[in-house]
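re the bet — no i am not wrong, look at it urself. input seq straight from the record:
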Amino acid sequence: MDKIKKITQEQNDQLFAFTIKHFVEYYDLQNELTDHLANAIEERWKTEPNLSFDDALKQEFKKFGIFGFMGVVESRQAALNKKYKKLMWGYMKEFIKIPQILITIALFYAVYKLIEFQVVSYHIMLMVILLTGIGTIMTRMVKHRRKVKRTGKKWLFEEIIVKSGGMASVVYLPFNFSSLVDSEAPGPVRIGIMAAIVVLFLLMHFVVLFVIPRRAEEHLLKTYPEYNM
């Protein structure tokens, strides 16, 4: 009985390089796809032992369609973005539990009184939070690029954490409520809504800019057991 062919270390390295050549930039996905291709080729060799490594690779790659690995990358990005949002809302919920809810109430009261005193402070507070967030994310991205350059490894979930899970798509949302601010003195209900928006915006930024990054290693090790800061 002929011995079943196995992927050699050299061929495994070729598969890894193949994923990079086809625009897979994240180390975790490079490893995942390399393992997938290696297993698929070995399975094919069980029924076609005379098939060359290159031909087997071509046939397996065809299964990914005309867009190659793009679908796999997009699918993984969507899954990890969903995981990030679940993490974010999990931490946000902590602020409506004792004792954190006391901080939330105190923040709401302080913001309410500030808007009541000077309604333009609504925009000022939002702008300060926004600029602080942008500055923090930009600084973190610069450090992240240096780390990637030093280690040669780029992890998808780590990049999502660094970029705050695509928060850029929602940071301008509170400004859409500018109609609440008009020339007339707003009533208690309107001030309450404005204060709630500011507090929610502030807590969300606090979670994505400080809480999750501070626990990044913990979450990354759960996602990638082989990850090492």
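see?? The chain has two domains: 9-68, 76-223. told u. also The chain has a mean pLDDT of 86. so pay up
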